[in-house]
Design brief:
By secondary structure, the chain is mainly α. Helices cover 70% and strands 5% of the residues.
């Protein structure tokens, strides 16, 4: 046991060390990894163009050169036009000097407001309370030491170095990174299939099918995300250009194009694209109307796009939770700076997809994916474990918004009670918690049953004298009884007549069955430890009531049906079912079989039920 524990701790430590090494490698090798990642991202974005040129029978190398040349020309043209506009604006600054001075004076006039006066008063008070220089007080009256100079020391001023060299170094580094991106992109586009095959061979570990699926899904998700993002940003830039044109901002089309490009930078791209138009509105127009209008225009547009358009388009394509997107943006920005902010979502999507297909990386899908890892049944059980009956009720109500009540019983409540049984048999539930869970579930079941409609046609078919035609008896404990209550409610809604027998000693439950005189008895048993008790109860029912039809309900049992029937030693065609829909279908098919004529004959394995028309009319 100790050896196994030591191996587990060693494996966990090895994973942590591996993770630290990977993060360190990404950080220190960012000068290579960033251009390479951007190249792969651009290759995915340009893949549709490559496919289109391939259909035109253009060789791959020629298609790559055409795309690369076109993109470089567009980039140079945009940079040249942007630099010309910036230069022109710089030359026109003297023209806007009067307008800017007027606004500065207007802002400065606010210093005469009451708020400014309060601020000045607080500043004066701080100066009055500030203690005088202690060294001056201590040195007052003291004579200088022999040999000391009476002159004041010369002040030393540190002159910072010129930033020209640093600027040139940064510019050269940026141009070098851009060149690497272009070169990597060209080679990735040329050898796309070869790189894909090498990656699959390297990472599959013999599982070619799984890794191929993972790579295809990651590629598809990232491609769709990039195409949708490009479409959204292009429309955003178009709307910005049109809006700024009608507001009157000079060169509105250029700022719209800049907004479309900057918006590829998450979170900070949109505010950055609004900065220049807002500053221009301050400089060009004499009043504040255009400035406020430009600011409100950008705010409204960004609110609509970020809160409505992007979640609607990106949600199904990305597969990430909102918190995961934010955390990924922070993480990759800390490691790689602004390029990491651009690459954050595609890289995280790739990690989530790998987590879905590689078992050892499944924690990535759990942490970052948008699919809830806890089922509705688990969530309901977890809320009851926390003694939160109100939120447990909300779980059921939310499920019923899109599903039927029988589906709720089958997919939520019965699996939740199965989890309760598993924890109870592992002695992980105390008596108070178990009692609260069972009592809360009973109350919720009763509330749900009261609001459900009943099929009156089936009730009329059976007749009003059928007071207790179906009895549900628990195999052993309270959980079996609660599931029996669910079955009775479903039978009642189907127009049948049923009654749940409470848990107790076997003799008392058999006596209750005799008092009810049912046609069918359903044994409700909830695994994992239900086979032995079910078999004992089944044989006692057969011995005491040989004419009664018995249905064995092993809820959510995952075993083999034939082996289970052999273990239970069933006979006389008594069926064994694992789900609620199977039981309901079987009982309704057997009990609801009307015959022609004045009487309705209902047969169930030799038991004949007569319900003549007079009794049916009386029941109505």
């Amino acid at each position: 046991m100790n050896r196994k524990s030591n191996l587990t701790e060693t494996a966990q430590l090895l994973r942590i060390v591996t993770l630290v090494v990977i993060v360190a490698a990404l950080y220190f090798g960012k000068s290579v990894f960033i251009p390479l990642a951007l190249a792969f991202l651009l290759s995915l974005l340009l893949a549709p163009l490559m496919t289109l040129l391939g259909k035109l029978r253009i060789p791959r190398i020629g298609a790559v050169l055409i795309i690369a040349t076109g993109l470089c020309l567009l980039a140079f043209a945009f940079a040249w036009k942007l630099s010309m506009e910036v230069t022109d604006l710089t030359l026109q600054l003297p023209t806007y000097k009067a307008t800017l001075e007027q606004k500065i004076h207007a802002v400065g006039a606010l210093r005469g407001s009451n708020f400014s006066k309060v601020s000045d008063a607080l500043g004066d008070l701080e100066k009055d309370l500030k203690p005088q220089n202690e060294s001056t007080q201590q040195d007052r009256g003291k004579k200088p030491l022999p040999g000391a100079s009476l002159q004041r020391p010369l002040a030393v001023e540190v002159v910072p170095e010129s930033h020209t060299f640093a600027f040139l170094e940064s510019a050269v580094e940026s141009m070098g990174s851009a060149g690497l991106v272009v070169i990597f992109t060209i080679f990735v586009l040329i050898g796309r299939e070869d790189l894909r095959n090498r990656f699959i061979h390297l990472s599959s570990g013999g599982r070619l099918h799984v890794m191929t699926q993972a790579l295809d899904e990651a590629t598809r998700r990232i491609q769709r995300y990039l195409l949708l993002q490009s479409m959204v940003n292009a429309i955003f830039g178009l709307v910005v250009g049109i809006g700024l044109y009608f507001i009157g901002i000079p060169e509105a089309w250029l700022w719209g194009l800049l907004a479309a490009i900057l918006r590829f930078l998450p979170y900070i791209g949109a505010p950055a694209s609004a900065a220049v138009p807002i500053l221009l509105s301050l400089a060009v127009f004499p009043g504040w109307k255009h400035c406020f209008g430009t600011t409100a225009f950008f705010l409204a547009l960004e609110l609509v796009v970020a809160n409505f358009v992007e979640p609607l388009l990106y949600g199904a394509q990305v597969g990430l939770s909102s918190l995961a997107i934010l955390v990924a943006a922070v993480f990759w920005t800390l490691i790689w700076g602004f390029p990491g902010l651009i690459l954050a979502t595609p890289l995280t999507v790739s990690l989530v997809v790998m987590g879905r297909y590689v078992p050892s990386l499944s924690f990535l899908d759990t942490l970052l994916g948008d699919e809830p890892e806890i089922s509705k049944s688990g969530l309901y059980y977890q809320r009851l474990l926390a003694s939160d009956q109100a939120e447990a009720r909300q779980v059921l109500e939310q499920y019923l918004e899109t599903k039927h009540l029988d589906d709720l019983y089958t997919e939520v409540l019965i699996p939740a009670l199965s989890l309760v049984e598993q924890d109870r048999h592992r002695n992980e539930l105390d008596d108070a918690t178990l009692a609260f869970i069972m009592q809360s579930t009973r109350e919720l079941i009763e509330e749900l049953g009261e609001s459900a409609p009943v099929e009156a046609t089936n009730r009329q078919l059976l007749g009003s004298d059928a007071e207790s035609r179906i009895a549900c008896i628990p195999a052993r404990d309270e959980a079996d009884e609660v599931v029996g209550m669910l079955l009775c409610q479903s039978l009642d809604r189907a127009g049948l007549v049923s009654q749940s027998i409470p848990t107790g000693p076997v003799a008392e439950m058999l006596s209750a069955v005799a008092d009810l005189d049912p046609v069918v008895v359903c044994i409700s048993a909830l695994p994992p430890f239900a086979i032995e008790h079910t078999r004992t109860l089944y044989h006692k029912l057969r011995a005491k009531f040989p004419e009664i039809n018995i249905i064995i309900c092993l809820w959510q049992f995952a075993g083999d049906l034939e082996k289970t029937q052999r273990r239970l030693k069933t006979s006389n065609g008594h069926p064994v079912f694992f789900t609620l829909p199977e039981v309901l279908e079987h009982v309704k098919d057997k009990l609801l079989q009307p015959k022609a004529g004045s009487t309705s004959t209902v047969e169930l394995d030799g038991a004949v039920l007569l319900a003549d028309e007079e009794r049916i009319s009386d029941s109505v």
